[in-house]
Specification:
A six-stranded antiparallel sheet has the order 6-9-5-4-13-14. A hairpin with a 7-residue loop joins strand 11 and strand 12. The chain folds into three domains: about 100 residues, no CATH class; about 140 residues, no CATH class; about 60 residues, no CATH class. It is about 15% helix and about 25% strand. It comes from Sinocyclocheilus grahami (Dianchi golden-line fish).
Amino acid sequence: MRRLGSVQQKIPCVFLTEVRNEPSRKRDCQQFQVVATENVNPAALESDIHCAVATEKFDGTCCYITTYKGEPYLWARLDRKPTKQADKRFKKHQYLQKTCKGFVWNVDEDFREVPESWIAAHRVQHENGHPVPDEHGHIPGWVPVDHTNKQYCWHASVVNYDSAVALVLKTHGEDEGLLEIVSIPLVDLMEQTLELIGTNVNGNPYGLGSKKYPVHVLVPHGVLHIRNPPPVDFQQLYSWFQECQEGRVEGIVWHCDDGTLIKIHRHHLGLKWPVGDSFLNTRPVVVHVDEKLDPDASEKDLFKSFSSINGKFFSCIQDIQFEP
């Protein structure tokens, strides 16, 4: 599995963007939205976007695998965010100035507390030894996923620390058109970022599982390549998202040769997401999960559930159901 760029920071849009005074299609209660112009972002051109690897952008929550207490561990995304008062001042500045730039933060007073185990993401800038916010007013970071923390119970369902493995969705080694769900040693995923998708994540845009039998998996960033990507041109990208089956995705992330990541989201183009029949659900999937489990494991243990259908093929991941 080729390792592409790690998602540690907010990824810039492939086009220059502007703020419009109209309700956001992406965030409820936000009375402005950020949309793409037709001008390609100079940062994308500098990184040779036209030679980059185009991959599917997944709609879930970002995770990271790195060491915790000497062992490989799954970490959940937790950005350190402003207090309500500070965020109000920031949003007012953004609305009036039509840009995030130029706003001055008081990092000691303007940001919420985070757990002691929290770490800042790679490349977060520091001043006087303290991390400072990005242009969006966040300090990206991570917290380790503990099975005792109910806030991260869906993250915890895709890792087994006793066996040191994770449940991962990826392309099949011998057939790129076939997906597979496998258990992969955490050590083999070290320093990678992945997207947690499933029943209880971001409104479940892919329609996975059910309330009684939820389905969640990790998708390594960059693992699902777009086979016939459109040129980096506003109108051609717009048409691709609208008219092509492969364009029924949340967005594209380009992985440039210099390590830079560039993205486009359907919302940048004024297009709806989620869509009813996403491209993910057009691809067959096979399950290869055969874990030796604790005999006392719950019937709803995700590793146990996947092990019960080990070797089975499905027309798409949405068809995987664990109901008896």
